[in-house]
Amino acid sequence: MKEFTPSPDSASIVSVTDRVKPVTLGMAVTSVHFLGPRAAFVGGEENVAFVDANGEITTVAVHSGGILSTAFDGKRLVMGGDDGKVVSLDAKGEVTLLATDPKRRWIDAVALHADGAFAWSAGKTATVKSGKAEEKSIEVPSTVGGLAFAPKGLRLAIAHYNGVTLWFPNMEGSAEFLPWAGSHHAVTFSPDNKFLVTAMHEPALHGWRLADNRHMRMTGYPGRVRSLSWSVGGKGLATSGADTVIIWPFGSKDGPMGKEPAMLAPLQARVSVVACHPKNDILAAGYSDGTVLMVRLEDGAEILVRRNGTSPVAALAWNAKGTLLAFADENGDGGLLEL
Amino acid sequence: MSEATSQKIPVTVLTGYLGAGKTTLLNRILSENHGKKYAVIVNEFGEIGIDNDLIIGADEEVFEMNNGCICCTVRGDLVRIMDGLMKRKGKFDAIIVETTGLADPAPVAQTFFVDEDVQKNARLDAVVTVADAKWLSDRLKDAPEAKNQIAFADVIVLNKTDLVNKGELAEVEARIRGINPYAKLHRTERCSVALADVLDRGAFDLDRILDIEPDFLEADDHDHDHDHHQHHGHDHHHHDHGNGLKHYHDEEMQSLSLRTDKPLDPNVFMPWLQNLVQVEGGKILRSKGILAFHDDDDRYVFQGVHMMLEGNHQRKWKDGEPRESRLVFIGRELPEEAIRKGFESCIVS
Asked: A285-291: long-range contacts at Cβ-Cβ below 8 A with a sequence spacing of 24 or more?
């Protein structure tokens, strides 16, 4: 096995497990994000737990039920709940109610724009609120599976059954439909705004080159893809769903068309969550057996962060500088690693 | 029941034609003092009079799977709702999915076969169909959905029996049995059925496919040795069997049972069954079987919904237990002769 920091006389994988500060959250966890200096672990229901550098935990109540969706822009965390509410949480731990569904329907998806606009969906309806402007809504043909703002302009991608609707909320009649048979869940724009990719209900991704809507099929996964992460500069899209980290190349104008993906860090377990480092060509991967690895994209060298033997890793995130890694499994056992 | 199975959350699918009494049954399940908490997925908000924060409105979105199989449809909304509900694991003991009166139960059932994540957390317990004793006979003639719901059922709650006389009741029961002799049938007024008779039935649990005998004894003396095609030139023909009970044969939807006390060759049977559900899966709504294979001391059990099959070795045959293979198919216009012939070719000679 290759070494991350090669040391010629070591036969086994480099391990930093002894440098991890363990965190026991005592709740089911679904994701983690760095809000300021603290890691904010999002619970399956009701609470977010802030963990500081000393491992001290402060719990903040955000929803009165299940937390169904999250979006994060580096400054605030927006969440949708089965209580029909959209709330945001900032680094100070302040909770702001952003919107309430009048029928108390589930908030299935949320998205955040760099300029502060946010979007949410309940059933077939997606709604955008931008600054002081009025809320604007659009109805798509079936329940919204995922939302994402384009990196440029106020444009929202709405994933649903049989395709994606692209919508400029400020332009009447601007909705454009990108068809592809099947049910589309998570959706993401490439950072350069050239490609749109969805994770489908079947174990596959689908992509469109936005210049000409050319299709890109990304198949071969044994399981559904639930975690997507763009590598630094948007050169690659790292994904969960297989027993290796699958990274599709997006560096050229054709994206992954006609190319093989990189397959790194194979284990006897399924990758459950991926998080690319914000500055370097490194990623962290969590597996269904509880393992957490750091992987160098260039050569696939690995460092062990957490051993296997627990429930699947559910949450994984770097801070903005890339000096801290936070993770937790489904049962809320996690850790912080300072690099 | 295996440990893995028992940890999964049981899901009861509640179907029934418009006005049969689904909501009455649902309200009973939710209001009765049983100490259990149910998450309920309904198609229409507001019909349920019980305050429960785990009532979820669904849109009944039927999605085709991209696997080239046209009868392989799932409920897309259910996949999403199950995902969300799993975040509140521990807050409820079981899930009830109510379908609209016009719904086909197959996509709901198939969701629990096809979706890996749904399968990991939940198990289909039974399809419960509420039927209206007064109007079902008419609906079976003019509403294909009603027929589907009867054919698909594990449990049939024959409701509003106070609105019909004895003869009418016997007639509607005979019509139900003409389609599905295997479901447990309960006669009720205002859906007053014991909840243990509709919940936690384990109808899709391979370990509990113990009894695939018809639910009523009269079927046993009803021999299928006459030729249906010659004698039955019109719909819903009925004839008497000396015991005074009418037997209806629904020309469109029927059940087919096969049995043999000779061992089956697994190398012939498995490909035959696979091929049968591939080719005829659109017609076969439900299938179940207990099988005795040649040179195999274990019972093999299987069940299926349309093209989807699951099966496993269940346990050792007991001493003195007759090593008999039994299969049941319920479906629409089943090619009976071909199925019987195919089955016979699987017997070790």
From this structure: A285/A238, A285/A240, A285/A245, A285/A316, A286/A312, A286/A313, A286/A314, A286/A315, A286/A316, A286/A327, A286/A329, A287/A312, A287/A313, A288/A312, A288/A313, A290/A329, A291/A267
- Tell me the C-alpha distance between A307 and B35, whole Å: 40
Would you call B76 and A143 a contact, using CB atoms and an 8 Å cutoff? Answer: yes
Retrieve residue B271's tokens: 């490909």
For position B43, what pLDDT does the model report?
80
Name the closest residue on chain B to residue A142, using Cα atoms.
Answer: B61
- Contact between residue B14 and residue B193 where contact means Cβ atoms under 8 Å apart: no
Residue A124 to residue B59, Cβ atoms within 8 A: yes
Instruction: Give the residues across from B333 on adjacent strands.
Output: none
Best CA proximity match to A36, nearest among A315, A332, A324: A324
B59 to chain A: which residues are within 8 Å by CB? 123-124, 142-143
| B146 contacts: CB under 8 Å, gap ≥ 6 | B17, B131, B136, B139, B140
- pLDDT tens, position by position, A23-64: 999 999 999 999 999 999 999 999 999 999 999 999 999 999
Nearest CA to B17 out of B138, B168, B180 is that of: B138
Residue of A30, A105, A223 lying closest to B87 (CB–CB): A30
Does any CB of chain A come closer than 8 Å to the CB of residue B46? no
Residue B140: φ, ψ to 5°? -65, -25
**pLDDT tens for residues B226-277?**
334 433 334 444 444 444 456 677 778 889 999 999 999 999 999 999 999 9
Residues A143, B116: C-beta atoms closer than 8 Å: no
pLDDT recorded at residue A289: 97
- Best of A79, A85, A161 to disrupt the B interface (most B CBs within 10 Å) is A161
Q: Cα A122 to chain center, whole Å? A: 20
Written as six digits, the tokens of B303 are: 């069940």
Question: What sign does the dihedral A101-A148-A111-A47 (CA atoms) show?
Answer: positive
Instruction: Give buried/exposed letters for A48-69 (b at 16+ CB in 10 A, else e).
Output: bbbbeeeeeeebbebbebbbbb
Which of B78, B80, B111 to substitute to test the interface with A, most A CBs within 10 Å? B80
**Mean pLDDT to the nearest integer, A221-234:** 96
For chain B, the first-to-last Cα distance in angstroms comes to: 35
Please answer yes or no on whether B76 and A65 come within 8 Å at the CB atom: no
Q: What share of chain A is helix, strand, coil (3-state, %, to 5)?
A: 0, 55, 45
Gap from A211 CA to chain B (nearest CA, Å): 26
**Residue (of B174, B100, B84) closest to B137 by Cα position:** B174
Alpha carbon distances (Å) from A218 to A89, A144, A204, B41, B69 = 35, 21, 6, 33, 21
